[in-house]
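Incident log, structure service

09:12 report received: a user says their structure output differs between two submissions of the same chain.
09:20 pulled the input from the user's history:
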Amino acid sequence: MRILFTKHLFVFYIPKFMSLYIIVFPTVLLNRYWCIVSLKTIILDITHSCMAKHGRFLSAQYRL
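09:34 re-ran on a clean worker, output below:
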């Protein structure tokens, strides 16, 4: 078993099962990560909906 360390997560790689990766986040970093991601998602949704109302956003996903 090899353990690969990156900045915010630990990846355990088991050579027997080539496609098996176990990713373990420390709980504090996990909570912080989800807070940041959800905040960015909310900001992007608000921005895209405002731009779509004014016809400035060309994505079909947000076009009214």
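09:41 both user submissions now match this output. Likely a transient worker issue. Closing.
09:42 reviewer note: The first helix runs from residue 27 to 53. Confidence is low (pLDDT under 50) at residues 1-14, 16-25.
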